[in-house]
């Protein structure tokens, strides 16, 4: 069963022309460049919340 899937996938990939591969890779790279700032902002917000929670926990223990 897995061999059939691998063979089908390889045939599909071999059937793609160079121009289509360039377009597909360009779209993937473009999406990556678009999503990078958004993901960076989300990660920084999560890190800030984690730091804020840790600071609150330490202040609570000191009291």
UniProtKB/TrEMBL annotation:
Source organism (scientific name): Borrelia miyamotoi
Residues that span the membrane, as ranges? 12-35
This protein's name: Holin, BlyA family
Domain of life (superkingdom): Bacteria
Any idea which UniProt keywords this protein has?
Membrane, Plasmid, Transmembrane, Transmembrane helix
């Amino acid at each position: 069963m897995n061999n059939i899937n691998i063979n089908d996938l390889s045939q599909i990939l071999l059937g793609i022309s160079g121009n289509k591969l360039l377009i597909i890779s360009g779209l993937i790279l473009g999406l990556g460049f678009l999503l990078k700032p958004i993901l960076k902002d989300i990660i920084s917000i999560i890190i800030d919340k984690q730091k804020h929670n840790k600071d609150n926990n330490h202040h609570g223990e000191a009291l």
